[in-house]
Amino acid sequence: MGGSGYIEDFQIERHYRDIRITSIYEGTSQMQLIAAVGGIIKGALIEARELLIIDSRNNKDKLELLKDYETRLQETIRFVQSETKEFFDYQTRTICDIAISIYFGYILLEESQKSEHKKAVAELYFAERLSLIDSLIKKAYLSKDIKTAILKEARNVPS
What we know:
mainly alpha, Four Helix Bundle (Hemerythrin (Met), subunit A), 6 helices
């Protein structure tokens, strides 16, 4: 019996119930993203990196690459913060994705010191995944250009 009497059997009733709760879920997710970006802005990524033990002699190039991405992340955050609150809120997931990708790079570098298999995994990550950071950074900047173009086009359309 379980939910008998509490759960409706028809699709439309389920969709109606779910549509109301979905907005709550989305709001909660967005609040978590905003909180995460707040942590990134306050230096959580740097603090987490400093807790890791990475041999800088064997990983010099990769460490420099990750630190360069950290600098670019901070530049992207400053750019996004200089725009409207709505634009900032829209970009929170992108900022979190960039920070997480950088942090995973650091974790994999630390783990790569433990075995050849883990070293191979780290190499693969650096070869494939980190290029996505460039795409995410470009997305943050292009989103503003696209938004501006759409608003400009909307203003030029006769009513």
